[in-house]
Amino acid sequence: MWVLMYQKVVQSGPVILSTPPTLRLKRFSALLGVPMTRTSEHLTAQHTGVILFLGAPGSGKGTQSAWLSRELGIPSLSTGDMLRAEARQKTRAGLKLRKLMASGALVDDKQVCHAVSARLHRELPKHGLILDGFPRTIAQAECLDSVLSEMGLPAPLILHLDVSREKLVRRMTARRHCGRCGSIYNLLSRPSSLGERCENDGTELQQRSDDNEETIRRRFLEFDLTCAPLVEYYSKGNYHRIDGDREPEAVSADLLEIFGRGQTRAAA
Ligand code: AMP
Fold it and tell me: pTM for this structure?
């Protein structure tokens, strides 16, 4: 996939941003006399803090954060994945966590904050870190703020993926993933070319145990209770609402624009 953007970059004038730099775009760049740069190189130089994805279950946080992580060359941490790994442990704590997550309830703030904070301290991000699914509550947002200020990192950049409820339920029940490599598929919008098997390694695809209608309803309830206060909490900061009711590529293109605009704004 390539993305072409014309953009007014303050010091260098217009550039073509491309991922990857295809031959066609190289010719186009030579023809117009406009320099080109890899999107990842351009973007990485701009953001060195924490990027947060806010959004209901099924809004595309996982897909977009994995994509952005590759684009920016910075790690992405999904608290859902982290907790699922803990829940797989054959211990009493693992079993308790498994039951709680299967019910669609949120895990205790203290436990999640402790794990995220430890991870941030351990892997002090060089160019930044993407958080997918954290914070989910105001207590978690406050905890993140204090960890960031303790580490001397700037306030987070917030990407809120907004998707209609009807679409979310359809997306979630059709969602599949590979238990080995973590690739995400969707029977409706992104089916695997190998049917029920992963395109990367042939592993049989799975449905998440909490992607059933009853649990989905509970997870939405949790989200409705916690999202509005979080949006309000972050709305005065570097907050961006994105229409997530579109194809993943269109959403990704909006994300690129946000980073481009961010640079123009910051440098203006
Ligand atoms: P996700 O993969 O982000 O949809 O999260 C799946 C489940 O993991 C949620 O329904 C919660 O039970 C738990 N979880 C993930 N992130 C958090 C968080 N930040 N705080 C509390 N629970 C979380």
Answer: 0.71
Whether 133 is in the pocket of ligand 1, judged by its Cβ within 6 Å, is: yes
- Which ligand 1 atom is the nearest neighbour of the CA of 140? 19
Provide the residue type at 71 as one letter. E
- Indicate whether 194 belongs to any domain: no
Q: Which of 45-49, 95-99, 215-219 has the lowest mean pLDDT?
A: 45-49
Give yes or no for a contact between 178 and 205, defined as CB atoms under 8 angstroms apart. yes
CB of residue 136 inside a 6 A radius of ligand 1: yes
**Partners of 78 in beta bridges:** 132
Span 210-241, pLDDT tens digits: 888 888 888 888 888 888 899 999 988 999 99
Higher pLDDT, 118 or 14: 118
Residue in this structure with the two tokens 């997870």, named with its chain if needed: 219
What's the structural domain count of the chain?
1
Give me the residues paired with residue 151 across strands. none
Residues 137, 227: contact at Cβ < 8 Å? no
In a domain, 231, yes or no: yes
| In the predicted structure, residue 204 carries a pLDDT above the cut 90 | yes
101 lines ligand 1 (CB under 6 A): yes
The reply to whether 126 belongs to the active site is no
Please say whether the dihedral angle defined by the alpha carbons of residues 244, 246, 252 and 255, taken in this order, is positive or negative. negative
The answer to whether residue 33 sits within a structural domain is: no
Q: Do the beta carbons of residue 154 and residue 52 sit within 8 Å? A: no
